[in-house]
Amino acid sequence: MLTISVKKYQGNPILKARVQENSFEKSCVYNPAAIVKDERVYLLYRAEEGYYVSYNSRIALATSADGFSLARYQENPVVDIDPNRPEEARGCEDPRVIQLEDGRYFMTYTAYAGMDERGHIITLAGAFSSDLINWEKIGRLVPGREKAGAVIQEQYYQGKYVMYFGEGVVKIAFSKDLRNWEAQEKPVLEPREGFFDSHLVEGGPPPIVTDEGIVMIYNSSNGVSYQPGFAVFDKDDPAKLLYRSDKPIMEPTEYWEMYGKVNAVVFTNALVNFKGKWLLYYGGADKSVGVAELKFEA
């Protein structure tokens, strides 16, 4: 069975909010997507101004030649709030990104419209890009108040893309074109009583395919803290869970992970293989961005 070891970067956090007047990211930067392009890591991060019931979120870009030191794109944000899309009246957040065979990129993100009597008004939305800077939004991907769309990179099932998604539980959906999705209602991953993921589970970075199966690092909460674990699904049946970790692969332990907008949070959307290392980028306490090196052992 697969095991994953994690070593946090000693220089964390690698990206912090810009506390200055009129900055769209003066409150928080966290929960980035990541992908490798032209021998650099491109990090698409959630950026916020304001807090709690008054915040607005956008998606900005930073790049790195070594995976650790980041330079912000000067024309940020790259994904702004569209006033013609009411589903994102308050923002665009928590992206995940893959590269397609034709060289383009596909992003899923959460469109946020505020709150009502039922809670947060969220939509799982998508966008395409050829350069990771200019994005064509395509709107809602699946029905309902959903989020966390993690599409498998370089793997198809019966000729279709596979996406794990969900709010509180993880479901699965299939698509030929990334625009139109067939979602299954039955969850493929649920919380477990008495474990680190007893309160909720949510998809993390785009899953990767290994000899063991489809490996999905997922986010979870026990009601007190957030920490990621991993699950392995069958390559021949991506809805079939083979096994999952009994312990989290990483926990909030550092001061910047323990105290922020939301305390005691390690939350990840991004995993890349860069210069021979698996690098996991994550948000700490919904405030800043850190990175850790992962090692997979069968």
Defining traits:
single chain; 298 residues; mainly beta; Tachylectin-2, Chain A; four-stranded antiparallel beta sheet; 1 helix
Explain how this protein is built.
- The chain has 298 residues and is mainly β.
- It has one domain: Glycosyl hydrolase domain, family 43 (Tachylectin-2, Chain A), CATH 2.115.10.
- It contains one helix and 21 strands.
- The strands form five sheets. Strands 14, 15, 16, 17 and 18 form a five-stranded antiparallel beta sheet that branches. Strands 1-21-20-19 form a four-stranded antiparallel beta sheet.
- A hairpin with a 5-residue loop joins β8 and β9.
- The mean pLDDT is 95.
Question: What letter string, H or E per element, gives the SSE order?
Answer: EEEEEEEEEEEEEEEEEEHEEE
What share of the residues lie within helices? Answer: under 10%
Share of residues in strands = over 45%
Class inferred from helices and paired strands: mainly beta
Number of helices: 1
Q: How much is the radius of gyration in Å?
A: 17 Å
In total, the number of strands is 21
How many discrete domains?
Answer: 1
Distance between the termini: 6 Å
Overall CATH architecture: 5 Propeller
Which oligomeric state applies?
A: single chain
How would you summarize this macromolecular structure in one to three sentences?
With 298 residues, the chain is mostly beta strands. The protein has one helix spanning 255-258; strands at residues 3-8, 28-37, 40-49, 56-64, 71-72, 91-99, 105-116, 119-129, 135-140, 150-151, 161-165, 170-175, 182-189, 200-203, 208-210, 213-221, 229-234, 237-244, 266-274, 277-284, 288-297. It has one domain: Glycosyl hydrolase domain, family 43 (Tachylectin-2, Chain A).
